[in-house]
Amino acid sequence: MGLRFDPMGGGQFNQMIKKIVEAESQPIKQLETRKGREEAKMKLFQEFKGKFANFDNTLQGFTNFQKFRELKVDLGDGDKQAGISIDKTKAQPGTYQVEVMQLAGRSSMASNSFASADEPVLGVGYITLKNANGEEEEIFVGGKDSSLNGVASLINSRKDSNVQAAVMKDATDPEKPWRLIVNSKKEGLENEVFFPEFYFLDGDEDFEIAHSQESMNGVLKINGIEVETDSNKIADFLPGVTLELKQAKEGQTFNINISEDNPKIAAKVKELATQINGILDFINKQNSVDDKTDTRASFAGDTSLQTIEYRLRNLFHEGFPIWDKGNDGDTPSRFINLTEIGLEFDKKGSIQFNEEKFTKAIERDYTGVAEAITGEFGFGMQMREVMANYTRPGNGLLATRERGLRQRIEKIDRDIETKQRLIDRRQEQLVNQFSRLQGVLSNMQQQQQYLSATMGGGGGNPIAQLMNGIG
Fold first, then answer.
1. Integer CA distances (angstroms), 87 to 70, 237, 251, 313, in order
2. What distance in Å separates the CA atoms of residue 306 and residue 313, rounded to the nearest whole number?
3. Cα–Cα distance, 288 to 294 (Å, whole number)
4. Burial class, 419, CB count within 10 angstroms (exposed 0-12 / middle 13-18 / buried 19+)
5. Whether residue 116 is found in the same domain as residue 265
6. Domain match, 335 and 409 both
7. Each residue of 404-446: pLDDT tens digit?
8. In the chain, which end has fewer C-beta atoms inside a 10 angstrom radius, N or C?
9. pTM of the prediction?
10. How far is CA 224 from CA 94, 240, 399, in A?
């Protein structure tokens, strides 16, 4: 059917323009399809990259003996008398007998009792105190500050002071329960302080120091040997061991037992196996294809993934060298295979961790197993070298592949944008052309109507025939 003038606004022209634009938009649709495949591939890649997210942190625990080992502490009945923390890279297994005879104490003083903690009843005066450098400083007291809480706030406002103040409630005298307490910030004889001196005039009540206590060192016995400590928190009580005294019980001993924590070590090895399985499982899924799989949107047959799988599996079949005590030569005394310590592949190609086998191996030969895993040529170091080629920032395989995928997606976006601009320009040209054509046809129709009215509207009118024949 021929193209005819549409008095309602050129609907036929619009349909024609739409068809032309749709035809010329096919390359954009093809680009969008390609972009969809690249984005699906990027999503898969991000999933794969996530398998490596904590892998380097996990491997850190397998690169030297101190990081690999795990220690546990048992205080027995002594947990109320002391607390303990250890640095596993420095501490050594052993058992120590401890008796806490006396806690280290702080210098302290308490004022006489007052009926209110907030009433300004002390009058006007000043406080003389010494800072951490031993220099004296005077603090003026007056107005609303001449209460117990006011004085405590003035003392505590001096950050370089070696004392701190608080207002405490003492139920000994219900009518006057409030006291000002001033303590040195640290315990021990080395931290003995001179307490502030208080001078007040014209107060409603007198201020006095009712009680005081001098600093003292803590006293404890270690394996029967008496020692003093200037703090209740003793850093390097033993190499890598910090002891915090909580309660003194003279005559009552308890044991500190530091030992290898084999279950925790086994858990670390199991976690490493789980993370490696995550990588292998992803690669296996990418290589599991059928006739419905769109390999263009996956990593099926990807040689770089196949290389990762090959190197990981090959590493698990190696023997790791052990230099026994006294062997200073270049040739190792023996080799330990991972299957000997409970790490082996199952029929599906996944790593299985036999915790019982590992625990027995580490209990039987802790030094040998630890060297096979953490030594200079051990499993941990070799695994780290393998992974560094993939996880290294900038030029590692993961970074390079991700950059390549992003660049392809960005290029497709630029191509789509360029083609869309051309199509928009083409559409504008078509609209202008068809608008001019519609104007011409409109004029011709008007002329036809005029001639028909003038000449009687015969069927042989050439303009009418022209209008009916356009197409």
1. 10, 12, 29, 34
2. 11
3. 12
4. middle
5. no
6. yes
7. 888 989 999 999 999 988 888 888 887 887 777 777 777 777 7
8. N
9. 0.66
10. 16, 21, 60
> Look-up: residue for tokens 């502030």?
196
Claim to verify: residue 400 and residue 303 sit in the same structural domain: yes
pLDDT at 233 over 60: yes
What's residue 290's pLDDT?
66
Query: Exposure of 122 by Cβ count < 10 A (0-12 exposed, 13-18 middle, 19+ buried)?
Result: buried
Q: And the tokens for 251?
A: 């005559």
Pairing of strands 197-201, 124-130: antiparallel
- Residue at token pair 């040998």: 368
Q: Strands, E, within 28-149: which ranges?
A: 71-74, 82-86, 94-102, 108-111, 124-130, 136-141
196 and 253 housed in the same domain? no
Amino acid identity for residue 70 in this structure: E
Q: In this structure, are 21 and 134 located in the same domain?
A: no
Q: Is 297 exposed, middle or buried (0-12, 13-18, 19+ CB in 10 A)?
A: middle
Strands 253-260 and 71-74: antiparallel
Which of 168-172, 288-292, 451-455 shows the lowest per-residue confidence on average (mean pLDDT)?
288-292
**Helix, strand, coil % in the chain, rounded to nearest 5:** 45, 25, 30
**Distance between CA 121 and CA 123 in Å, rounded?**
6
Angle between helices 303-315 and 397-455 (to 10 degrees): 160
| Contact indicator for 187, 230 with CB cutoff of 8 Å | yes
End residue of a domain, out of 213, 248, 283: 213
Domain boundary among 174, 191, 213: 213
Residues 368, 293 within the same domain: yes
Quote the CA–CA distance of 184 and 180 in Å, as a whole number.
Answer: 14
C-alpha closest to that of 266 among 189, 358, 340, 169: 358
Q: Map tokens 């109320």 to a residue.
A: 80
Token pair recorded at residue 347: 């029929």
Tell whether the torsion through CA atoms of 272, 274, 278 and 279 is positive or negative: positive
The tally of domains found in the chain comes to 3
Of 406, 439, 335, which is closest to residue 38 (Cα–Cα)?
A: 406
CA–CA distance, 315 with 309 (Å, rounded to integer):
10
What gap in Å lies between CA 100 and CA 227, rounded to an integer? 10
CA neighbor of 85 nearest in space, from 93, 73, 97: 73
* Contacts with 11 (C-beta within 8 Å, 6 or more apart), sequence order: none
pLDDT, tens digit, 9 for 90 and up, residues 29-43: 899 888 888 888 888
Same domain, 265 and 119: no
Write out the residue range of the structural domain in which residue 234 sits: 72-104+218-260
Q: Are residues 95 and 180 in the same domain?
A: no
DSSP letter assigned to residue 430: H
